[in-house]
């Protein structure tokens, strides 16, 4: 039974459709339950930028997936048909491997998608829909994704401005665990920057105009400090300041920085301003031992990092090609297993028939001689079939019709093994 993949993503479908087709983590179980009415063996991969269904179906029945998407989203099938991309067997495997490796992501090399592929498999298992083929496909894709990140730098070099800000701070001042970092702002960028600092073991203080929002961020991190309320006092204690508010004016002016530096003239103070409009007065960098970096500086680093990741793509594709070949050989061997079984059964029937007829024409033999004769005929059969069976097990791409040829040459009646189908 072939495997199909149908889906939508950021590069092929507008957001107005993607948001209706989205199957969030909390609704993944419900999505699988609905999908079960159409296909028994399937998995759903849903992220912020994609919704994909991988399923096993008899040829000609795969089109029912449109009805599932229509039922889930409330959209007409006609509207969906032109936006859904479709893959079958090898193309579907290749697509999932690239997704797991981060090559098909909006941010190339993103690490989060690997966890999402893993969660997709776990959900399919929980729903009882992860057949042997689904299980092996997703497990191998996850393994390939891990290998890619282990052997290449595709997921290194931060691309989010908040992460780059923290990287830049660490590159300049060294180990963040030995420095005090102040994050000004508790919006999305502030959360990301704060999380990045904490992950590196930094001593973090959060300052925000709304103390309630700052407390929410501090509580969620578990290892940060809420600012006292006096910004100048916090600046005096900080080594690094990451500012990312939505204020329409400077949050930290030249005069404030000058006042702070009078209390610590020999201790450097580094500002990383990722706000637009800028939070930090650019003139502050004229003060001795004060360093100011703005979002343009970080965007330049972001561009460099993106180029570094793109430079890894060829190496990633080489690794994926190796992993795909390994998986596809297993897939083909599974398809050919009933043919191999039928071939051995027919050969054994012929061997036993000829063995019995031969025994009748010979003088009486002792058990030892009969055993030798039996072993010899088995060895002849095995050696004759060895090359053919090896080729069937390998399931090389160039030999897709080998199983049909073997069935015709040996006049085999092949019974379909339901286990190898799913």
UniProtKB/TrEMBL annotation:
Belongs to the glutamyl-tRNA reductase family. During catalysis, the active site Cys acts as a nucleophile attacking the alpha-carbonyl group of tRNA-bound glutamate with the formation of a thioester intermediate between enzyme and glutamate, and the concomitant release of tRNA(Glu). The thioester intermediate is finally reduced by direct hydride transfer from NADPH, to form the product GSA. Possesses an unusual extended V-shaped dimeric structure with each monomer consisting of three distinct domains arranged along a curved 'spinal' alpha-helix. The N-terminal catalytic domain specifically recognizes the glutamate moiety of the substrate. The second domain is the NADPH-binding domain, and the third C-terminal domain is responsible for dimerization. One of its GO terms (molecular function) is NADP binding. The record marks 95 as: Important for activity. It comes from Dehalogenimonas formicexedens. Homodimer. The gene is hemA. Keywords: NADP, Oxidoreductase, Porphyrin biosynthesis. Residues 316-412 form the Tetrapyrrole biosynthesis glutamyl-tRNA reductase dimerisation domain. Substrate binds at residues 47-50, 105, 110-112, 116. InterPro entries: 4pyrrol_synth_GluRdtase (IPR000343), 4pyrrol_synth_GluRdtase_dimer (IPR015896), 4pyrrol_synth_GluRdtase_N (IPR015895), GluRdtase_CS (IPR018214), GluRdtase_dimer_dom_sf (IPR036453), GluRdtase_N_sf (IPR036343), NAD(P)-bd_dom_sf (IPR036291), Shikm_DH/Glu-tRNA_Rdtase (IPR006151). CDD domains: NAD_bind_Glutamyl_tRNA_reduct. NADP(+) binds at residues 185-190. The keyword NADP applies. Catalyzes the NADPH-dependent reduction of glutamyl-tRNA(Glu) to glutamate 1-semialdehyde (GSA). Residues 7-152 form the Glutamyl-tRNA reductase N-terminal domain. It catalyses: (S)-4-amino-5-oxopentanoate + tRNA(Glu) + NADP(+) = L-glutamyl-tRNA(Glu) + NADPH + H(+). Its EC number is 1.2.1.70. Pathway: Porphyrin-containing compound metabolism; protoporphyrin-IX biosynthesis; 5-aminolevulinate from L-glutamyl-tRNA(Glu): step 1/2. Residues 168-301 form the Quinate/shikimate 5-dehydrogenase/glutamyl-tRNA reductase domain. It comes from the Bacteria. PANTHER family: GLUTAMYL-TRNA REDUCTASE (PTHR43013). This is Glutamyl-tRNA reductase. The active site is at 48 (nucleophile). SUPFAM superfamilies: Glutamyl tRNA-reductase catalytic, N-terminal domain, Glutamyl tRNA-reductase dimerization domain, NAD(P)-binding Rossmann-fold domains. GO terms for biological process: protoporphyrinogen IX biosynthetic process from glutamate.
């Amino acid at each position: 039974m072939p495997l199909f993949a149908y889906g939508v993503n950021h590069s092929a479908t507008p957001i107005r459709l993607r948001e209706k087709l989205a199957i969030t983590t909390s609704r993944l179980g419900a999505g699988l339950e609905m999908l079960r009415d159409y296909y028994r063996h399937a998995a759903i991969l849903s992220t912020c930028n994609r919704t994909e269904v991988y399923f096993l179906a008899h040829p000609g029945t795969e089109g029912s997936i449109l009805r599932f998407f229509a039922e889930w989203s409330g959209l007409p099938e006609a509207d969906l048909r032109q936006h859904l991309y479709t893959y079958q067997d090898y193309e579907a495997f290749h697509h999932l491997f690239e997704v797991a490796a981060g090559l098909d992501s909006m941010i190339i090399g993103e690490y989060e998608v690997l966890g999402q592929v893993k969660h997709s498999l776990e959900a399919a298992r929980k729903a009882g829909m992860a057949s042997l083929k689904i299980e092996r496909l997703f497990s191998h894709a996850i393994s390939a994704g891990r290998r890619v990140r282990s052997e290449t730098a595709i997921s290194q070099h931060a691309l989010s401005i908040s992460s780059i800000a923290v990287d830049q701070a660490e590159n300049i001042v060294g180990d963040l665990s030995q420095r005090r970092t102040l994050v000004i702002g508790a919006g999305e960028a502030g959360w990301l920057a704060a999380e990045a600092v904490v992950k590196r073991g930094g001593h973090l203080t959060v300052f925000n105009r709304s103390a309630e929002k700052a407390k929410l961020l501090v509580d969620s991190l578990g290892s940060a400090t809420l600012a006292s309320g006096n910004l100048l006092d916090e600046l005096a204690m900080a080594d690094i300041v990451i500012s990312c508010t939505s204020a329409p004016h400077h949050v930290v002016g030249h005069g404030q920085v000058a006042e702070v530096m009078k209390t610590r003239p020999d201790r450097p103070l580094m500002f990383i301003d990722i706000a637009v409009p800028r939070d930090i007065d650019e003139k502050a960098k004229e003060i001795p031992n004060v360093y100011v970096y703005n979002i343009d500086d970080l965007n330049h680093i972001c561009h460099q990092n993106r180029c570094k990741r793109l430079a890894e793509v060829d190496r990633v594709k080489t690794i994926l090609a190796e992993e795909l070949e390994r998986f596809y050989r297993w897939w083909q061997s599974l398809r050919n297993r009933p043919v191999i079984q039928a071939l051995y059964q027919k050969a054994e029937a012929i061997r036993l028939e000829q063995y019995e007829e031969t025994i009748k024409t010979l003088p009486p033999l002792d058990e030892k001689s009969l055993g030798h004769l039996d072993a010899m005929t088995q060895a002849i059969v095995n050696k004759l079939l060895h090359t053919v069976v090896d080729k069937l097990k390998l399931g090389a791409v160039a030999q897709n019709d080998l199983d049909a040829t073997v069935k015709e040459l040996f006049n085999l009646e092949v019974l379909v093994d339901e286990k190898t189908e799913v």
